Amino acid sequence: MGFFELAFCPQDDYTTIRQIGKGAFGTAHIVQHKVTGERFVLKRVRLARQTARERQSSVKELLLLSNLRHRNVLEFKGCWVEGGCNLCMLVELCESGDLFTQLRLRVSACVRELCMCAWWVELLSALAYLHRSNIAHRDLKTANILITGDGCLKLADFGLSTVLEQESNRMTNTMVGTPNYMSPCVLQEKPYGTPNDIWGLGCVLFELSALKPAYQAFNMAGLIKKVTSGPAPPVPPCYSDHWRNLVRAMLTKEPDMRPSASELLDLDWLQVCVFMYVYVCMGVWV
């Protein structure tokens, strides 16, 4: 699907409810369709204020999202250009916000392991789907995981994502992402591929378990040292050996030693949650 083949959604069809986000280059509003009453999020990006690289990132996110169809990937609804310089993108509304905010509200109470297993299958299924499509997300973190009103998790923010080359050795070497979630390869400016996303999701898994980031430091030099040569952070003892071993495997420093998303979905002890996930999806296999 090309840029001009995307679903066109006239702005006049929607009523603005309220603003939910504002940045240097745009805004996000909850809008409601005037006929159906359905609510969405309208992201408006001011292309004129962006550099060429930033505009490329905005358009890349739009094109990637428009071609993705998965229960746990934020759903693209349509787009249009407003006033010749504002790129408007309509996506589904996730009423419960993002995972980062929800975790901060917990303060000290551990998330139940069974609940996390169910979440984990959702995220692994979405990541396996992306990797089968040769897409690396490259910015997996709790703030980029949204939650719908009925508790379904959605991977979002594909502005840093990339399509890997159609070769056996699919790698990229651009240093992008959020520092606390960057893998050793990214921080050392080495080529990396889909195992980089496994590391990022491993950091998310640790944060779900410990309610704090896996790696923290006062400066970038200290963070690089911790990530590249420090020990793996310990998962709280309230979780099972299976869970702690899962975190350890995903945060293995050697990328070739990390399991893939598909391999993680095949873990024996996770199959009850996988079965429940498939049942909820009404026969759509992960």
TrEMBL record:
Record's PANTHER family? SERINE/THREONINE-PROTEIN KINASE NEK, SERINE_THREONINE-PROTEIN KINASE NEK2
Gene3D superfamilies referenced in this protein's UniProt entry, alphabetically:
Phosphorylase Kinase, domain 1, Transferase(Phosphotransferase) domain 1
Q: Where is the Protein kinase domain?
A: 14-270
InterPro entries for the chain: Kinase-like_dom_sf, NEK_Ser/Thr_kinase, Prot_kinase_dom, Protein_kinase_ATP_BS, Ser/Thr_kinase_AS
Which family is this protein grouped under? Belongs to the protein kinase superfamily. NEK Ser/Thr protein kinase family. NIMA subfamily.
Question: From which organism does this entry originate?
Answer: Volvox carteri f. nagariensis
Q: Which residues form a coiled coil?
A: none
Q: Where does ATP bind?
A: 43
Q: What is the lineage of its organism?
A: Eukaryota, Viridiplantae, Chlorophyta, core chlorophytes, Chlorophyceae
What are the protein's GO molecular function terms? ATP binding; protein serine/threonine kinase activity
Keywords from the named record: ATP-binding, Kinase, Nucleotide-binding, Serine/threonine-protein kinase, Transferase
Protein's UniProt name: NimA-related protein kinase 9
Q: Which domain of life is it from?
A: Eukaryota
Q: Which PROSITE patterns match?
A: PROTEIN_KINASE_ATP, PROTEIN_KINASE_DOM, PROTEIN_KINASE_ST
**What SMART domains does the database record attribute to this sequence?**
S_TKc
